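To: structure subgroup
Subject: Chain for Friday's discussion

All,

I'm putting the inputs and outputs inline so they're searchable in the archive.
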Amino acid sequence: MSSIDETLAHLRRAAASTAATLAAVRAAAPEETTATDDSGAVAVAVDRRGRPVGVRVADDWNRRTTPEELGRVVLAAAGAATADLGRAMSEALRADAGAAADALPAEPVAVPTFDGTPRPLTELAELAVAQLSGAAAAEPAAPATATGSAGAHVTVTLAATGLVGCDVDPRWAAPQSGVALSTAVNQALGEAARALVALDGRRQEQDTVLAEAFAHLRALAPATTDGEARA
């Protein structure tokens, strides 16, 4: 086995071990977790990844909070749901740490592979430089985020870890019902979620470039002969 093959095998084993741990954690989590802010004006449901999948604004929201505070209240409810999700996962894993891992086979996570003929190294190098330049131009500590809106009145920002921003125009919100506000926030969430999927697609393009580069390296690695294998 060449040194490149050995390195790839090591990376695959490490990735598979990490995948098994993550799979066990997610198996222990409820499909959805819902919580409200302290005032009870807003309830937010999050999925197993902590991303919001639904927002409900109470009919009497304007008795519990103010239009100026509505965006902050949505964030507070999302944070409460994420915290509840974390506690539920921890409790489930403590109750039966081994069962979750045994019950769910982990999907293998491997170093990106490429089938077919990779593009020339010069072209891959140009793509890699362009991708690195784009990454260097971004804020180093800023996570990838996506924004969605409902007209000019509601804007939300999603990251891989969940809801990180919510702005609601207070003058527009003041006369709105809970149903109307819920619809607007959920519409903005849907748009942000689609934009986040598009970001994931761009990251997959980076994986493809990496996979093609590995294909070139594997082709350049000297093959192990039968005599070397026996030695």
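Points worth raising on Friday:
The longest strand covers residues 162-168.
The beta strands are 33-36, 42-46, 52-57, 145-150, 154-159, 162-168.

D.
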